[in-house]
Amino acid sequence: MSSASRVISLRIPDELMVKLDHLVKATKRSKADLLLHWVEDGIALDEWQLEELEAGIKEADAGKFASNSEVNRVLTKWL
Q1: For 19-52, what is each residue's pLDDT tens digit?
Q2: pTM value > 0.85
Q3: Is 49 part of any domain?
């Protein structure tokens, strides 16, 4: 991550602020540290999901689908 950073403003409901304050005390971490960690994790998760969706769309566009027997095998295994 670059050393440059920006300030953003965010409104959060009182209930979440109470929970955040509790976690700050329990973890002995700052609000900024916790929030930055959660933003980084959320962005990483969304990026991963988007990459997987795009890969799935490319496979579908290329006609790469599971056969009926493959689908039935998985359904039988889990149901």
Answers
A1: 999 999 999 999 999 999 999 999 999 999 999 9
A2: no
A3: yes
Residue 45 counted as domain residue: yes
Q: Residue 76 domain-assigned?
A: no
Tokens 């900024």 label which residue?
Answer: 32
What does the alpha-carbon distance between residue 12 and residue 18 come to, in Å, rounded to a whole number? 10
d(CA 11, CA 6): 17
CA distance 53 to 30: 35
Residue-level length of the chain:
79
34 with 40: CB under 8 angstroms? no
Say how far apart CA 29 and CA 22 lie, in whole Å: 11
The residue segments making up the domain with residue 48 are 14-64
Cα(36)–Cα(49) distance, integer angstroms = 20
How many domains are contained in the chain? 1
